[in-house]
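User: Teach me something about this protein's shape.
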Amino acid sequence: MISIEKTGLTTITDKSTWDSLHDQTKEYNIYQTFEWGEFKKTEGWETKRFMLKIDDTDFTIAQTVEKKLFDKKIIWIPGGPIFSKNSSFKSYDSFLKELVKHYSAYKFVLRINQQYPSHPTINFLLDKNGFSRPAKKRTSGYTIYVNTTDFENSTTKNWHRNYKRSQKNDLDFIVRNDESLYSDIMKLYNETVTLKKLKNVPDFSHISTLHKLLKDNVITFIARHNGIAVSGRVLLKCRTRAFDYIAGTSYEGRKTYSSHFLVYKILEWLKNAGVELFDLSGVDPEDEGVFNFKRGTGGELIQFVGEWEISNSFLLKKMLNMYLVMQSGG
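Assistant: First, the predicted structure itself:
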């Protein structure tokens, strides 16, 4: 179903229509899929899907999730907005203007996390339409893209050397697209949290819901040593792209270089499955260990447009940023 707002936005509720538009975008991602919006509903968010179309070659879409508190709204756009492959950014400019107009009937704060490589025109249009960088970000704004078609020749010497070391440890590689490895993944994830002394981390108890909604596109990879899981990752697949979602390695796994083994085997598996791009889903250059490990794959460091926000309520914006500060422990 499609309805046209007074603001000029088109509201889309039909899955097939949304999927068709999503398929035509340049930097599509898992977080702007119809299924991800349905998943966020299970977490108490209201999901809306908007489009503004100039013509068949220039349109912009965004799936928003929002929570209403009396006459106030908190709106989050994960991974978007996204636009058509040949967009001139005209639709993007109009989309931002109309989206703000749509929410202006409320006291609101709207935060986007646009996973599109940093672009001066996009930054200019966001600034033009009243958006600014938030005081506190949820993400670093960086990721690494690994091209699976030629990754074997792209890893750094040290990273490849550690992969060779892992091959001496008799590791097994297991792949599943169901929940059978959930307990292994969570044990490895929780051990990693303990080893790194991480705080305020998600519990990932929603994996069961993701399996129901994304089905075969939730894929679990495990490396075992002597029959015991020592490293694991969960990926979310979206057509020819895959997104890193959960990762964990035990103390024993670190000693056997199982992370290098597992990522190498994952890249082989993705290549054979026709997945061309592996998005390592965020890196923080200040987290030297993780950053160097992911960079060692030979992937390309990408800076996204990232997080911007707009609000007509200073208090609401301040409350959101204070909440994010407390969530990150900072």
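Now, about its shape. Residues 47 and 210 are 16 Å apart (CA to CA). The chain is about 35% helix and 30% strand. If you'd like, I can walk through any region in more detail.
User: That's plenty for now, thanks!
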